[in-house]
What does this fold into?
Amino acid sequence: MRRILFAMVLLCLVALAVGCARPACAQTPDASAPDGSVGAALRNLASRAGAVFVGRVTAVTHSDGVVELSFAVELPVMGVTGATYTLREWAGLWGGGQPRYRVGQRAMFFLHAPSAAGLSTPVDGMEGIVPVIATGADQAPLLDVRRLAGRVQRAPGQPLDTAERGAVALSDARSIVAGWRSVQPEPRRLPLPVASESR
It folds into this structure.
């Protein structure tokens, strides 16, 4: 009995020592905890991503149990240096005949680093794909953050966000994502353009 008790105490001490040995800067947001704001949701996604960029899907190819996606990178944010990016996903994620992506789709993509097999997925499934909203030629691009707003913990009785607060400026989101390790100001919430509400 004493040996078992000794072994349990020793294991607890080792676990405690390993937990304390990690530097504070290596801490990342708790992915299981609800986000407190849209900015926190963006930081949470960025903290677990190996690559983040704004881009457009240019090709989707199915082959040998893998789906290969090609992207034109319009704005690298982190972990991407070239003008193109290739994502390889396990074809089993594409069940039910439903496409996960479509050619021409434009978004801010938060992607896990590729595994040893070269496969990856968006962080938190399709929540790691935040749509870019088409605006006029002389207007700054926006991100549709309504889906991310659904992750935010609300006070009792507080309603869900509406289209009046469904967008943030892409430049604000980029600053938050690129500087996810530091405290950034919360992005100003903007109304969605009228054309995007009907989609």
Observations:
- The helical segments are 2-21, 38-47, 146-149, 170-178, 194-197.
